[in-house]
Each structure stands twice: as C-alpha cells, then as structure tokens.
Amino acid sequence: MRGRILILAAFFLLVAVDLTGQESEWIANMAEEISEQGGEDLANAFIEHFEYLSTSPLKINYADRNDFEKLIVLTNFQIESLIEYRKSSGNILSAAELSLVNGFDETLVRMLLPYLDFTIDLSGESSVFGGGEYKKFRHNLLLKSYIERGADNEIGEPVYMQLRYKCLYKNRYQLGILLENDAGEKIIGSSGIPFGDFISLHMAVKDINFKGWKIKNLVIGDYSARFGQGLVMWNSFNMQGNSSVGGMFKRADAISPYTSSTEYGYLRGFAATISKPIGRRVDCIDLSFFWSYNGVDATVKNGKYTSLSANGLHNTESLLKRKMAIREMVWGASLRMQSHRVSFGINWVSYGFNTYNGIKILDYNRFQQYYGIHGNISADFYWLVQNYRLFGEVALDYGGNIAMLAGFIGRNGEWDLGGIARYYSKGYIAPHSGGYSSSGGCYNQTGISLSAARYLRGGVQLSMGLEGTYYPWYRYNIPSDTYQVKGWAKLEFASDNSSWGVKLYNNFTSNRSVNKVGVKGNYGTNLFCKWLQVKGRGELAYCTSLSGYLAADVVAKACREKLRFYFRVAYYNCKDWLGRLYIYENDLPMSFSSKLMYGEGLNGYVMAQYKNSKFGTLYLKINSDLLFKVGLKSEF
Fold first, then answer.
1. Separation CA 453–CA 244 (nearest Å)
2. Which residue from 227, 124, 228 is spatially nearest to 170, judged by alpha carbons?
C-alpha cells in the first residue's frame, strides 16, 4: 500500500493541475490553515469576510490606512507605499498600474483584484465600500438548503435551511436578517417562525457626521466587538496558524454587525464607535462601547449550570432543553487615541451569567472557573517605525492574572517579516478573548512565532514560519506540562493561466512524542482553452504510519462563463488517526467545507453554478455521500 501512495504522489508531482479562478485559490488555502488551527467556524467567518468584500469591494482611490487594513494580508510597508503613490501620482486606474507600486507585483494584485474597485466616484458619496456604479439601495439575498439524514432520535425533519437578507442604503445604513435551521431540528420551533431555530437581526449605520463627531459604527441587534490584539475581547476569526505575515497583527473595526451563521460567540444588544477629530499630532480619539444580554446553551441542574454548549444543535429533546437555558450579560468599552504613526488604547470588558456556576472542578479546568461578575482590562498599542509596525497588549483579569503579547511586522529589503511573542498565565480568564494562540484560548501558554516571505524571480513567492509553544499546566486529557514545535516552508506561483504551490511542514508535540511531517501541493493550468480548467492537489504525511491523498478537479465553463461545472474525485489512504488529513471543497456561498480523509477509499463531488443577470447565481452540489445541496445568491 505504501508503494501505491508513493506512485500516486509521483504522478501528482508530474501532472497535477489547478482549478477555478486562480484568484480564489489563496482564499481556500488560508481558510484551510485557519480551520486546522481554530476550526471550521473561524474558517467560515474568514470566507464570509471576503465574500462581503467581493460584493462591496474597496474603492482603492478613496480608502485610508484603516480601510486598507480590512484586506488583512497587506503589510504596513505595502499600505504606506500605496498611499504615497496616490499622493505623488494621483488615482490608480487599473490593476496594471497597481502592480507598479513598490511592494506589489502581478501575483499579489491578482489575489486582491476581486476585492478592489478602481472606478472614480462622481456621486459625492464618501463611503469607500460598494464598488461599481453607485446605487442608493443594494439588496443581497442568500438561500441554502440540503437534506442530511441523522440519528433516529432527532425531533425534526432532516432538512438544513438558511436564509440571509441584507439591505444597504447609500452604503451607510444596513439592515440584516438571518434564519437558520440545522438538519434534524424542528421546522417550526419556539420562535413560531419557519426554519427559525436561530434568528439573527441587526440594524446598523456608519460614517455619519454629527456636530463635530463621527459615528463610525452603530449597531442595534447582533454584533461583533474586537478590541486591541484580542486579549480581552475578540469574537471574530483569527489568522494565527496562517502563512500571511500581515495576519499576525489584528486589525478590524471595533464594532461591526454580526453576519455569521455560527450560533455562539456573538453579542446581542447595542454597540457603537464614535470618533472626534483632534488636531495635527493626534488625528482622532475613538470611543467604543457596548452592552449585550444573550442566551447561552447550557445544562442546568439544581439551579446551577454544569456545562456550556457551543455547537448550536437542537435536534434532540435533550439538546433542545439546553437551548438558551441561561443568560449572559456582557458590557465594556474601549478608548483609543490614533495618529498617523501611533495608536494607543485602553480596553475593558465585564461579564456574568444569571445562574450560578456548578461545573465540576478538574485539574485541567481548575484555573478557568469564575463565579459572579468577572472581567478584564488591557492596554494596547502600535507604533510605525520606518518599514515596521510594532504592536503589543498587556491585560489583567479581575483576579490579577496577566496575559501579554508583543510583535512586529514589516519589510527588510525584499523580505516581509513578522514575529509575535506571548505569555498567558495559567489562571488568566478571558472567555471572550481571541488573541494569538496555539490552543483554544488565551491562557496556559508561552510561545513565539516567526514568519517570513518574499517574491523570487518569475512571480514565485517563498514563505516560511516557525512556532514554539510551552504549556506549563495540564490540558484536556493531557495531565502534564507539554510543548510543541511547528515549522513550515512554502513556494507558490499564480498567473492568468496556471498556478502551483508546494508546502513542507513538521509538527512535533511532546505529549506521547508525536511528530507529524508532510508535504502538500497543487499545480494547475487552463487545459487547451480558458473554458476548461483542471486541478490536482495531494498530500503525504507521516506520523506513526504513512498517510496520503490525491485529488483531481475539473472546471468546465460555458455560456460565456454564466454556467460552470465543478468535478472532483479523490483517493485517500489515512489509517493513522494522528496522521488524519483534511481537504477543502468548493461549496455553497459563504460556506467553508472540509472533508476528513481517514481510512481508505474514494470520495468526490459535482457542483453546478449558473449565473443569471435577473435572479442571481444558482448552486447545485452533490457529493459521494449523496448529500444534495442547493443555494441561491442574488444581488439587486
């Protein structure tokens, strides 16, 4: 069997070829890495972020530094180079001109192209998002559904349903609603609304000037809050574990509407960020504040919660009883001083449940329990020094436990460099944090991460990274202190007609002395003409035995690219659970889908996508498990 895997790998390296729009490949690769580190929910949030940018691209000639940071992958050097180019040469009118800016090349521009708008806005509107022809009203509608058979004790029909609607007025006023029902849940539940097991609603305004103040964001309903580098509050996706140097530094609006279908981790109430311009040395002072009162799934016994649930499933009687069984109140604020090169912020958050804590104390969780009202306070900063951005945050919880991190991103010659060091004490409690972490939270670890990237000749990008983490206290099912070391190196290339990439990685964990080493890659091109694309990707890994998979994809386009067909077939042989592998799949819009490769066999899928100017884009997908999915995405 090992010989068969090696032959397949050799075949892959010789003939494997690439898939659908090369511009989307880097999104899939990043989502894969985020999923491996933080789970599919974070990967979904990452994809949703760029799906939003694709429908409301950034107007490159009107954006400021904060706007460019929403692209996430840009370094400070690239942002400053772009702004300086606009000052000296005027508006950037095309992708070809953008590739002339210092720090940009054709490969990077091709990656960013779906999320940028080069048009000159004559409408007089100040919003830097929207793209294309100005419209007072923009409507986005998304429907997704599939049938998935489950266990016999499920209380509802085996139908998954999701509906999203968003309305934008003048790119400043927003209304959004989301209804979702997981397979097996009651179609009409306690809300009385069909397919409304999870209902999310928000109303938001942004970029409104009022008597010398600016309302940057105001949200009523469901929202996200993100302060500093995430040591006290950050309920959005993280880039840790990702190969992007720029992703080490967290950047996002402090307050924004919640648009994900993930049924936990969001805030419900009201929130706002207001800004006051100051003067020459200090550009502005931002004040963000919020209040939330939201339900939490939990098991309650004798008036105390004994466990908390975060999967959002309510498809059995026992799970339905846990639905929003307790309430959590969360409130906080952030005050930030911002100038051209320096930013400094003070952040505070407090929280508590309306029910007593009855969770059983064990060795691995004894330092993560709190009773009554708890909270955190922190100070964070960033400082632009030549081509580098230095940043950091220090935080304390109400018990006096500390967490801190410091890092840098920047450019030295042709190299983009980044590094981050962190110390999170074993007793630091911050359930709403999202700081850089190699585990599920900002506690019980000390670590350092380094990353570097540069472009070689011919548009080839070389990137590499190294991370070491020490866990001084017990973790779940690990009754001792442990450490782990991760390293990787990657080569990538993309052009209009082809792309390829090869990544080598090694992950070592001292617990049971587990060492996983592997190689993954893809190479692709248009086949014969631009209407037919093929892709191959594969991975070989060794932990306690050899594992691997090989996948071949075909994309066929017709009717002037209005109609697309996606085909995949994959062979896998991964009989070692510690060496199990995952592969990304094309899926319905605003969805991340990864397939577990464990055991031996074949799998695949077929997906059709039809774009119509009147009703939008229709998606149909069926996989080897006979799971049939349908979706509709419309913008009008």
1. 8
2. 124
Q: Specify the 3-state DSSP secondary structure of 530.
A: coil
List, as one string, the DSSP characters of 615-626.
Answer: TEEEEEEEETT-
DSSP H or E run through 609: strand 599-612
Per-residue pLDDT at 320 exceeds 90:
yes
Neighbours of 565 (CB within 10 A): 15
Count CA atoms closer than 13 A to 431's CA, side-chain side.
Answer: 22
Q: Tokens for 299?
A: 């098991």
Phi, psi of 29 (to 5 degrees): -65, -45
Beta bridge partners of 255: 225
User: What tokens were used for 634?
Assistant: 């419309």
The yes-or-no verdict on residue 29 having pLDDT over 50 is yes
Q: What is the CA radius of gyration of the chain?
A: 24
Per the CB < 8 A criterion, the answer to whether 397 and 376 are in contact is yes
- Inform me whether the pLDDT recorded for 237 exceeds 90: no
Q: What confidence tier does 27 reach under pLDDT thresholds 50, 70, 90?
A: confident
CB 481 within 8 A of CB 489: no
Of 40-49, 517-526, 560-569, 590-599, minimum mean pLDDT range:
40-49
Provide the CB-side half-sphere exposure for 162 (13 A, CA): 21
d(CA 576, CA 512): 15
